[in-house]
Amino acid sequence: MREFLLGYGYFAMYYALAITFIYFLIFGLSIRHTFPLQRGIRYNRVRKLSGSEHVPPVSLLVPAYNEELMIKENVRSLLALNYPEYEVIVVNDGSKDDTAKIMIEEFQLKEIKPIVAKRIKTEQVRGYYHNPEYPNLYFIDKENGGKADSLNAGINLSRHPLISTIDADSLLEKDALTRIARVYMENPEETVAVGGNVRILNSCTVEDGIVKKIRFPRQWWPALQNVEYIKAFLGGRIGWSSVNGLIIVSGAFGVFQKDKVIAVGGYRGGYPGEDMNIVIKLHRYCLENKIPYQVAFCPDAVCWTQAPDTYRILSSQRMRWGRGNLKNMIEEGIHMVFRPRYKVFGLLTLPYNILFETLNPYFRLSGLLAMIGYWLLNMADWKTVAVFMLVNFFSCFILSLGALYIEEKAFSRYPKLSDLNKMMIYSFLMFLGYRQVGVLWRFLGHIDFFRNNNSWGTMVRTNFNK
Amino acid sequence: MAIVIRNGIQEITLQLLQYIHVATAKSATCGVILAPCANMNPKTLDQAKGLMRKNDASLSVQLIYDDANQVLCAVLDGGTLGTTHYASLVLKDFLQTQHLLLGQLIVSSFPESAKPTETAIADFIQRAIRSKGNDDDIHFFTAANAETSVLIADPDDLVREFIKIRLELKGYLVYEAKDGQEAYDLFVQIMPDIVITELNLPILDGYQLIRTIQRQDSHEGKVIVLTDRQLSENRNRAYESGAADYVTKPLSISELEWKIKRLTENH
After folding, report:
1. Cβ of A82 and B200 within 8 Å?
2. Using one digit for the tens of pLDDT, what is the confidence trace for A392-419?
3. Are strands A191-200 and A253-257 parallel, antiparallel or unpaired?
């Protein structure tokens, strides 16, 4: 028993060292790429591009399920983006409320009979609607089939070579599309997907679908999530995208090449995590077919989203993520991991995701059990344990602060100094319970997965202005 | 909330507008005399009224005195420009002998010399206020020499402010709106001579705004599009909807001014 525990201790130490090393590696890459990004942002001519004929046309796909509260304002603000040529395709996924009715009445839509390419199989579509007064707005009413299915229906109707997926409960900044398009235009042949940056809307002031006053969330849960998002997006995704190992483009806002999405069979329904799934499939498809490609991240294209503000909603969201993540790893990841033909993605991204993200809860739990074992067998040298934990904690804390540094240096969205102080405090508080609970949620999500509990969980909407 | 110029003349403008509408409904025309004068009390008002009555019994005269701006308004039911002018001579004489007159009298007749819109009346009153301290002569107010009013619809605060400042320096009366619905409501209310609009507006987009304005008001060529969009199809759609001109951002303000000038001279 002692030998086993000792062996485990060594293993846990190497595990922690490896995870920290990868964290710092990715963070280093993020920092390195922040400055070129910042220059690009500073000198790009967004205004000029937003009306230019050189910008590729985009189809925005907006899946809507029970969105009667917000749908009107959201579609209105999507119709007024600063972008030369785009269409907005709203897909009603068999809502149980009046989403469809509100859309049809508000925009006086009439049923049309377009010729739709059935490139991806979807649920039965009840009708396509359009109003010549709003020439770039289309509305699809279909039977309930989940978010992925709605996106596929939207892809079938879309006319443009690029598609962008947008959550109906999020707000796009006016020039977000232009900024993302700029990243795409730098390398239009190879860029198969570009992810946008997601920021948290809670406590900000919204007027006419535009975020007017940016404030750090006042409530606990959103504030913690805010710090977590900044760390993941700026400290993580910039780095991952620089080595072309980005595994996820947020479902809330991303742009894809349509023909590639169709080539990999569209979005996969039935499970959450369809945003990660599509990116993994794109990586796989391009690597297997030797297509030079790139999955980019554009941190200055911002989409504002409402974060869950109660324990119940947040836990169901995280359990959903955990379930989706596990499903993706079992379905797709396992075929590609540690295989040199999948390059960075197979040798770095996937091992990192499987070992340090998906399996993290099990290591944590076994670590806890081992601790109890050491204590029972009097093997523990408390000093060593304390030092190890402190080193671990500080390395993570430094990374959080580093992400804040990137935020302030390159984007600096929060105008008030007090907000910055709050962010630092919450970066510290993240380690006192929030991360542990996060691990627990992921574990519960896995349990759900194995029990085949496949509900979407709850998400209660509130109006933007609180 | 758009910033409409709300100085002290709002109230008197609306009041006068109501009188004019009542008068024109009754007898098709309505003459108005504005005179900046000090310290009118009910007694002097009655005297003035009596004098004007005596002069021309066929006219019914109403006098309003706006304390805040020190302007006397005389509304003459059925007054043409000629009869109103004649009545103004009498009024001027009376005010001078009483040492009440502070500036020029301004005479107009609706709808003969101008359409009775809120902008026109506001302009009319402002002119009377501005004339304080000038020689005591009589001027005419007509649409031709009224200030051109411009409505700017653009979601971008900076763009609006920039154009507004520049146009106001050139003597235009400028109103602002930040979305299509607001622009349309303001348009109905003030009937501006020129509308400058972005195509990319929330609620009602630019094309819809142009179309509703054209339906509302068959004046050809009142809308100038000022937009980021440079595609030829945007241009075509804007002209199809009824725009008179199309300017792209980044804008040359002098170009915009020339276009406004040309349009206003045409109508």
Report:
1. yes
2. 889 989 999 999 999 998 888 888 889 9
3. antiparallel
